[in-house]
Amino acid sequence: MEKIVYDANFCIMTDFFRMTGGKWKSVILYLIRKDINRFSLLMDAMPTISKKVLTQQLREMEQDGLLIRDVLVAKAPMVVVYHLTDKGKSLRQLIDGIIEWNKHYF
User: Fold this and answer.
1) CA angle 48, 102, 86 (to 5 degrees)
2) I need a labelling partner for 50 at 20 to 30 A (CA). Which of 4, 28, 37, 101 fits?
3) pLDDT tens, residue by residue, 7-22
4) Which range of residues forms the domain containing residue 81?
């Protein structure tokens, strides 16, 4: 019988959950899809997230290619809008499926 060796460092699911997992990333993806795509709007929609955590999550998602940060006005006060990339948009069906699964079982 062949021994199965699992290495979480080289796992598709580990990569997926690193990019989309945690408390906030799926919520951020959902909200940006609904045009809640400015920092202040995201803060209002998620009142228990801190500015530091939201900034960190947005930066990570941008680095992972899920979001684009678009600076509309470069001088103070800056106007920044976040948009989903094609990679981020491709998660829509998956997120909708998770929402439906949650409605069904919870």
Assistant:
1) 75
2) 101
3) 777 788 888 888 998 8
4) 8-105
